[in-house]
Amino acid sequence: MNEKVIFFDIDGTILDHNKEIPLSTRDTIKNLKNHGHHVAIATGRAPFMFEDLRRELDIHSFVSFNGQYVVFEDEVIYENPLKKETLEHLLQFADKENHPLVFMSEENMMSTTGDHPLIEQSMGSLKVASPKQKRDYYLDRNIYQTLLFCEIGEEERYSNQYSELKLIRWHDVSADILPANGSKAEGIKQLAKRLNIQRENIYAFGDGLNDLEMIEYVGTGVVMGNAVPSLKEVADFITKPVDEDGIRYGVEKLGLLK
Fold first, then answer.
1. What is the CATH number of domain 84-179?
2. Cα(146)–Cα(20) distance, rounded to whole angstroms?
3. How many angstroms separate the Cα of 165 from the Cα of each of 87, 206, 218?
């Protein structure tokens, strides 16, 4: 059998718009594993934000924080945290712009401010509770991703200010902040290296802007029917939307269960 590794994004890919796993997706992932393939997650979420999902689907390898924290069979194999001095400057700049931040470690996340409507709006869309406040959370632990809360277009001020950072919008009022060299593609390279698996045997399913490098890098990039238009432009295959059994359809059409 020619084994493959298949990476799945979470929101809009594994999870439908109600943040539930379609039954067809559960069955498909189980069948992929039964056929000897490796199944992994590639997400912008922090590990603590999808622990229940990993347990539910019995998945033990993942690329999290958009590539900054990679785990293979429950073992951490790659870390790419943001630099402390950069976070210090970022906090000062965000304060001047009156934009809240959320610092994210592998275990938890903390906000630079108290209750804030933009944080509640965007985190609520993930069905995740808003974080508590601790402005200096970044000082004594690794921070792999920071969330910026601002209106569309305002993140450009940060991109112009910090060449060492990459900003990717994931919500109308929020953007991910990563190291400039970070991406899901880089995290996938690290996991593929551990598996000793060739690029042509790597598949990935995604739907958002943070999936762009991943879809371009892997041997077969599968884009959900509900994906953003720019992602569809680089797809090797466009499957049906998540709520129309898109994962099962894509897996079957690509012959991964033969």
1. 3.30.1240.10
2. 25
3. 10, 23, 23
Check residue 129 and report its DSSP letter: P
Whether 243 sits among the annotated catalytic residues: the reply is no
Q: Could you give the 3-state DSSP secondary structure of residue 57? A: helix
**pLDDT tens for each residue of 201-219:** 999 999 999 999 999 999 9
Q: Which residues touch 168 (CB under 8 Å, ≥6 apart)?
A: 44, 66, 175, 176, 178, 209, 210
Of 9, 11, 16, 207, the active-site residue reads 9
Record the tokens describing residue 63, joined without a space: 């690329």
CATH code of 5-79+182-253, in short, is 3.40.50.1000
- State how far the Cα of 150 lies from the Cα of 27, in Å rounded to an integer: 39
Residue 131, pLDDT > 70, answer yes
pLDDT in tens, 145-161: 999 999 999 999 999 99
Question: Encoding tokens for residue 93?
Answer: 């700049």
Residue spans per domain, the chain: 5-79+182-253, 84-179
Cβ neighbours, 10 Å, residue 163:
8
pTM of full prediction above 0.90: yes
